[in-house]
Amino acid sequence: MLITPLLLLCVAICLSPTASVIDDFKANFQPQVTLRTWEQAIAMAKSFIAQLTLQEKCHLTAGVRGTCAGNIGSLPRVNFSGFCLLDTPSGVGDGVLYSTAFVSGIHIAATWDRDLFYQRAVAIGKEFRGKGVHYALGPMVNIDRNARHGRNWEGFGSDPYLSGENAFFYTQGVQDQGVVATAKHYICNEQDTHRSGVMKGANDAIVYSANLDDKTMHEIYLWPFASSVVAGTGSIMCSANEINDTRACQNNKTQNGLLKGELGYMGNILTDWMGSKSTVDPVLSGLDIDMPGNDEYMGYTLVPFVQNGSIPESRIDDMATRIIAPYYLVGQDQDYPTVDLDRDTMENNYIINRKVSRAGMILLKNVNNILPLNSSVNTNIYIYGQAAGQTNCGLEQTSWNANCGGALYQGGGSGFVRPAYAIDPLTALMQKGRDDRLQIRYITNQNDFVSINRTFSDRGFQNAKCLVFISAWSEEGIDRTDLYAFDNGEQLVLTVAQNCRQTIVLVNSVSQLNLERWVDHPNVVGVLWTGMPGSEYGPAVVDILFGDYNPGGKLVFSLAKNDSDFGTDISSIGDSNYTEGVFLDYRHFDKYNITPRYYFGYGLSYTNFSFDKLEISQANDDDKNSPVSLYKQRRMRPYNNFGHSGLYDPVYTITFTIKNTGNYYGSEVAQLYLGFPVQAREPLKILRGFERVYLEPNESREVALVLSRKDISYWNVVNQQWIVASGTHTVWISTSANNADIKLQGSFSV
């Protein structure tokens, strides 16, 4: 029942395999409120704070009991009703009703499409606003440093630039709807083992410390948080782990030094739940809000510490101002809805969810163009694997149960969204079978090898296409034990491939997976990475399988041949030493000349593209339609916080031409990698730009990428500032981090 209206709508409106109601969907991207600058918001906040007593100001600094995951208490005397905070980052979380389970962070990043980054965030922001929620506790911008990290599915992958662009447009999309975005978890929360002193399932007092140097901090882990600050985020959540042996939420260097000092951050810092462990040190180190507040480290507890001089009242005023300013910044004083967590605010968000779901799927292997399937010819289809169908345990699976199985729409933990509905691939394929008169057979019990083997003798099997669905789950609180598929999925693939000459594997995974046991099997002729695709999974994957959508997603991490090739892993002891420095993922593979199975940035299409006419020039915004002017227009909001350093000023424009030389409408992601002079001590190449370009067959288009001053700079640990190294900077335009995929090369000298 859930799937029929959507598919009938597409059938009725589709003009071609590449033009549909989904493609034509345009959300209302105009801000829903009158937005303010930080200067305006701070002035209004100070005016409000001036009315408050010391006790009332302190009251704002700690959570209280309430209907939301986090609650800032009301102050009836001054007609302040408080704030509601709820988990995200992939929709309205914490088990509320009528919420869209959007594609996860790792999936939206794989679209490599800033417009889609923003559109998804707009839809998420609308749902939060409609329910009267003031703070969305996202985006999650921690770097995918460890392939086994249980929360990688929430974030944006292994590259700081790509993560930063996602963070920027997530913040912008959510705050344009009047909802405060909350970048998390600040900082270096790249594993959940020993994250906060208690590892799931163990009574363990160890808290891990992420130990790293200054250059690594700035160029990798601080980068996406800096992008959030520049975008104008109103809140940042500090993490539960330690950084260089000091807890994140009472770390003076990272909070006062880096965030509020160096980055000029003007919003508030709130704790991850139970992240605060004392009173005076966290406050003096920059913490503004303690969540959920029942530990009584802050709130009214602060009053005697102010009275005895341990905490200056000016610091309390600063905390209160930072708490109230985002309220005015995004216009929550303008007819903001009352809190009703179960109010239906989904509207037609299934459309954008399906759009981003298929845009983030990645075609990894396509021997002899086995895909797309032609439903008038490929009429005999066999489906294998529990990951094809619906879970046995319902849609509220916030943690893993091996008896449940089923298609995965998202991972688990606080980032889990209770979906109002979810459509699995098997259901969507059955619908396709009915409409196109296909012969479909399936077995979802992947351990029933008696039944599986029996299908190989079926009438007509020799001409069948075999779709094998495998999956890998992870969740907050516990890291993955390995990088293999659930329930021995590798054996399922091999069993089918040994008997079916046209086996297509669909990988429904939270993050990195080891494919080596089966990917080179000669009968595995197609591999589609379906990622963490949200509740429109079924319709989205059918669109790709049958050519109604041309896949164009790209990997946001490398897939290694050996797990040890990554060079980093979860630390089982108290310290996690970031000794790899800035040589993470593809940078590490380049440094040690390691060939992965599939490179960062890799992904195939049903069509082909050519590149030509690379030009590099200094940035110029004299023309309002110039690349630099358009770059600025795309990013500007009243609440931006670009600072005064000129670090984000455009300095170079890179232009080139892309042409679709194939027979399908499709997209290519042009990726700009930059090589630095030796002085900078940087990896061989670093991602510093990208654009996803959609073209009709034989259509060509000029693409312009803009480099900011920060993009061409390195962090100088002696001078403690971003420096542009003297010498030649090499520009590579590529379609992945593989040197063999470089299409154009140029350079500029500074």
The CATH architecture name of the largest domain reads Alpha-Beta Barrel
Structurally, how many domains make up the residues?
3
User: What is the CATH first-level class name of the largest domain?
Assistant: Alpha Beta
Strand residues, percent: 15-25%
Amino-to-carboxy terminus distance: 62 Å
Average predicted confidence as pLDDT: 94
Compute the number of helices.
Answer: 20
The percentage helix is 25-40%
Note poorly predicted spans.
1-20, 198-204
The strand line-up of the biggest sheet is: 1-2-3-4-6-9
CATH superfamily of the largest domain: Glycoside hydrolase, family 3, N-terminal domain
Assign the structural class, choosing from mainly alpha, mainly beta, alpha/beta, alpha+beta, or little secondary structure: alpha/beta
> What's the total number of strands?
25
Task: Fill in the CATH topology of the largest domain.
Answer: TIM Barrel
User: Rounded to an integer, what's the Rg over CA atoms?
Assistant: 25 Å
Backbone shape: globular
* Major sheet characteristics: 6 strands, mixed
What does this structure look like?
The protein is an alpha/beta fold. The protein has three domains: 39-197 and 226-330, Glycoside hydrolase, family 3, N-terminal domain (TIM Barrel); 349-577, Rossmann fold, CATH 3.40.50; 607-749, Sandwich (Immunoglobulin-like). The strands form six sheets. Strands 1-2-3-4-6-9 form a six-stranded mixed beta sheet. The protein has a six-stranded mixed beta sheet with strand order 10-15-14-13-11-12, with helices on both faces. A four-stranded mixed beta sheet has the order 8-7-5-16, with no helix packed on it. α6 (114-130) packs antiparallel against α14 (349-359) and α14 packs across α18. The longest helix is centred in the first third of the chain and has 17 residues, at 114-130.
